[in-house]
Every structure is written in C-alpha cells, then in structure tokens.
C-alpha cells in the first residue's frame, strides 16, 4: 500500500522528492494556527469536540471520555489492487 | 514395404481419449511426423484448412460458446490463455482518497473499486487509449498522465438523514439518503479528446450499475477520484476481459451392445437430461440376427442423442448391468469453448483478439529471430 | 476545447485542499507551465500513433544458448511462457525435418522460456524455428477466417 509518506511542509524550500508529489498541500497542525485547539470526535455521540492544550479529555456534550482523532485532511493515494 | 493408409475408423479411433472407470487412456496427440511409420503428418496449411471447423452454439455479448474442431490442444490452449491473461482492458488503477469516513477501510475500498468492470466506446477503448507506463523518473509521474493513457473518475457521496422518511421506517435506504454507494454513483470526467470518443452511450461507465461499493450512515462521506489505465490479466485479474474463458473436450458415448427396457431408462438417468434418448426397437432391427435386438420389438432402447450435454460423470460405468455395453471417451481435437465477457469487449471479439494477438506475437518473434541471426 | 495531448487536469486534489501555500512547491499545480507544452491542436484525430509499442521491440528477446550447433540448438525467449512455448513446440514438431523439439520454463520466477530444436541434415534449427513462427501466423489467419464465417452462419440461422 503506497500511503504517501509524511513530508514536512517546507513552505518555500526546495521541491520535495519522492512519491509525495501527488499529495495535496499538507495542512498545518491545528496547534499551530488554531491557537492550540485540536478537534476530536466523541466516541459516544460522534460530535466534533474542540480541545485546548491541557484541557480535560472529555466530550463537552455527553461527557464521554473516549475521543478519537479526526481523519487526515490530506489526500491519500492507493493502488486499486 | 508398402504402407497401407489408415482407414477412416482408425483415424477416428486415434482422436478419442479413452475414459474408463478409474483410468484414462490415449491422452497425448500422435499426429506428428514419424509417429506412424509410412504416414505423413507434417504441417500442411491446406490440410489444416480442410480439416478445421468452427461451430457456434451461442453468441451473446456476455456469453459465447463455440467449438473448434480439428486443432491441437497446444494451440487451443494458447487461445484460452491469451483471452484470460493478454487481452488489455481498462480498469481503475489508482485511487486518490480525499475523505472516507465510512466503515470500509481505504485499502479495501480501493481494491473493490479496482475490480469493477467498466465499458465504453469500442473505438476509444481499443484504438485511442494507449498504455500508461510509469516513468523511470519517479518525479515525472505527475507529468505522465495524458488524455490518451488515463481516464479520470470521481466518486463523491455523502449520507444524510431523509426528512421525508415515514415515521417508524427501518429500511436504511429509505431512512437515509445515499445509504448505499453503487457503481452508478461513479462519475466519468472526460479530459481532452476523451469527450469525442466517450460521449453518450459510449461514455465510460460501469458495466453493471448496481454493484454495491459501500454502505454509509448519516454523516459519513466518501470523496475520491480515480485513475484508470489499460492493463492485462497477467498483471492483475481486474484487467482480464473475461469472467470465464474455458474449453472442454467433446464427450463421446459409444453404446456397443443394446441397452433395452428398464435398463435403458436407468441408463438415461445416469446422464444429464437430453444426452440419452429412448427409441422403440423397430421390426427390422428385431429381425436382424446377432444384433442383440431379437425378440425385443417395441421395447425401448437407449440411443445417444446429444453427447455435448454430457458432463462425463462416469456414473454409467459404476453399474454392473452396463458393463461392456458402453464406452466413454472424449474427442481430443474438439474443443467446446465458453467465453464470458465482463463487458468491455464482446465475447466473440475477445476470441478474435486472442487469435490476432497470437499472430502478432509470432510475427514479432520472427523479426527477433531474423535479428538474432544478423 | 479539446486539446490534443492536453495534460490531464490533475490537481483536483491539490486545488480543493486547504493551505495551498503551505505545500512544497512540487505539490502545487504547475498549470500555466505544462499546459502549453504540447499544444498541438492540428493533430490528426485519426492518427493513432503506434509509437510506444516500439520501445519493447528494440530489446532482443530471443537468444541462442551456448553449446548450440547448426542442427541442434537451444533458444532462450524472454517474457514468453507456456502460451507461446507449447504452441510453438507443437508446430515445430509438425515439421518433418525436425528430429526433436521441446520447450521448458527452467524456473517459474524467471520470465524465460527455452526451446530446444534438433533437426536432420539439410536444414538448421534456426530455419525450423522461423518456419514454426511462420506456420503459426498462417494458422491464425485460417482460424480468424473460419471464426468469422461460422459467426456469420450462426447469426443467419438465429436471426430468422
């Protein structure tokens, strides 16, 4: 499975080589642009939960303590084999 | 020493593969020069033309059946193998997944998409579209997709609640919109000259629009685009133009001594329906001395009606009452083909393409041999 | 406006994505540049170029193996298998000047097929191989003709 490798976003750096070139832009970490807010998915009620750095790991809606990471926003490439 | 040419019966006998209760006999062909002293079996194109016959049994787009009679197994097998592994078709090769929140994993979804057979305008598929080859320079991959070697598809489905659903409804397809993702939801995105070759009825589309790809629940989404390329079955089975391309040898049933009355009915039941028919013993036959029919006028006798329908189960050889009365076999040079297309080609066209392919291979190799000597 | 050899408008993915500026330059669509590379609008539409098949033709796929004499030779075919091997073996064995012919695939993970030909005096193994390939082509022509005939006959009987 040729899941594209992670590439550090270089901004203006030299062009990256390798299979990643088809990959879409690598979005910045939420931590970088969202002032430390990351979004998770509640394992119980599936609501999108914003979490600050150091906040209690808990769904604000239902109080469930199991949160899942969101799926990557990047395009992922697969061979149909 | 003068040699007697073989009789017609002898030639006929040589063509039969014997099938006994537990064993088979005379499997290999013997029609080679030097095998029978004094007989000439050298390759003669005119003799082949005279002796070779093709008969059609069925010719539908998705299923063709025909017999090649008077050809060697090595050639017949080459055609069969080429149909399965060497005739190119277009199939999904790469999947670019933007989002997939369904329960089916990206890898599995991609694999399922790859296996969907597609159809499209024949001229565009077979003439216009060319091979795509991965560039040796990996960084040039994105510059290697052209309208003549890549077909783009998209699949964008989002499942939502259906407000109009009746209260108490339990059927997910009515309760939600797009609960099921079908092959028909795949959208063809023509690029460049593709719109000329693949428009209207000739558009690239799944052969069967009802193939279920995934199931969704409200909030789940599949969003992806795909690239199709030409490929051959030897690379991956998804590229094979046929679901089935097989042959079997024509069965031979020889009733050597009469099977009469209740035995005849039992004998018929040993075979698939229609293979054995029951006929009344005529007055003339009954009068014939030594025929085995004496005094049986009006009784039923078993006759072979349609050996092609036989499965050669050998059931009749298991019963004591038929011992020595029947001989089973198969005709070594009679190949009954069954070709089932997956839809990108017509079934009969696949065979013709296979023959053309073998010719092309021989032609190319002949050039290579000449080149080798030089 | 269909453009001959137009680059496929690939960066659907890239374009719809967030934060385009953050992507490495190689990730960004190079639209303006390569769209103008092959603008060959006058390209004859029916002219299906047969170019890309030639590159495979250039490599020599048949080789005479060491130890071969004119009348007894082994050939090595690259990228051939049972499909052609057995068909070729049959048609060469039908040649009365051939004493012996056999094919083998020495190892299943190597895409190689060997053919051994021994002939009687008066001809050579190479000639026998060449004749075999020619006979195979003639055979294919007859099969095609008879197949088309049989199909027409069948269509005539079923359409009425």
Automatic annotation (TrEMBL), chain A:
Keywords: Metal-binding, Nucleus, Zinc. One of its GO terms (biological process) is DNA-templated transcription. GO terms for molecular function: DNA binding; DNA-directed RNA polymerase activity; zinc ion binding. GO terms for cellular component: RNA polymerase I complex; RNA polymerase II, core complex; RNA polymerase III complex. It is found in: Nucleus. It comes from the Eukaryota. It holds the Pfam family Zn_ribbon_RPAB4. Residues 1-22 are annotated as: Disordered. Belongs to the archaeal Rpo12/eukaryotic RPC10 RNA polymerase subunit family. PANTHER family: DNA-DIRECTED RNA POLYMERASES I, II, AND III, GEO11084P1. This is Metallothionein-I gene transcription activator. It comes from Corynascus novoguineensis. The lineage of its organism: Eukaryota, Fungi, Dikarya, Ascomycota, Pezizomycotina.
TrEMBL record, chain B:
Keywords: DNA-directed RNA polymerase, Nucleus, Transcription. It comes from Corynascus novoguineensis. Belongs to the archaeal Rpo3/eukaryotic RPB3 RNA polymerase subunit family. InterPro entries: DNA-dir_RNA_pol_30-40kDasu_CS (IPR001514), DNA-dir_RNA_pol_insert (IPR011262), DNA-dir_RNA_pol_RpoA/D/Rpb3 (IPR011263), RBP11-like (IPR036603), RNAP_Rpo3/Rpb3/RPAC1 (IPR022842), RNAPI/III_AC40 (IPR033901), RNApol_insert_sf (IPR036643), Rpo3/RPB3_RNA_Pol_subunit (IPR050518). GO terms for molecular function: DNA binding; DNA-directed RNA polymerase activity; protein dimerization activity. Residues 63-368 form the DNA-directed RNA polymerase RpoA/D/Rpb3-type domain. It is found in: Nucleus. SMART domains: RPOLD. CDD domains: RNAP_I_II_AC40. One of its GO terms (biological process) is DNA-templated transcription. One of its GO terms (cellular component) is RNA polymerase III complex. This is DNA-directed RNA polymerases I and III subunit RPAC1. SUPFAM superfamilies: Insert subdomain of RNA polymerase alpha subunit, RBP11-like subunits of RNA polymerase.
From TrEMBL, chain C:
Residues 1-60 are annotated as: Disordered. It is found in: Nucleus. GO terms for cellular component: nuclear DNA-directed RNA polymerase complex; RNA polymerase I complex; RNA polymerase III complex. Its main location: nucleus. The keyword Chaperone does not apply. Residues 73-145 form the DNA-directed RNA polymerase RBP11-like dimerisation domain. The keyword Disulfide bond does not apply. One of its GO terms (biological process) is transcription elongation by RNA polymerase I. Keywords: DNA-directed RNA polymerase, Nucleus, Transcription. Pfam families: RNA_pol_L_2 (PF13656). One of its GO terms (molecular function) is DNA-directed RNA polymerase activity. Residues 31-58 have a biased composition (Acidic residues). Belongs to the archaeal Rpo11/eukaryotic RPB11/RPC19 RNA polymerase subunit family. This is DNA-directed RNA polymerase RBP11-like dimerisation domain-containing protein. It comes from Corynascus novoguineensis.
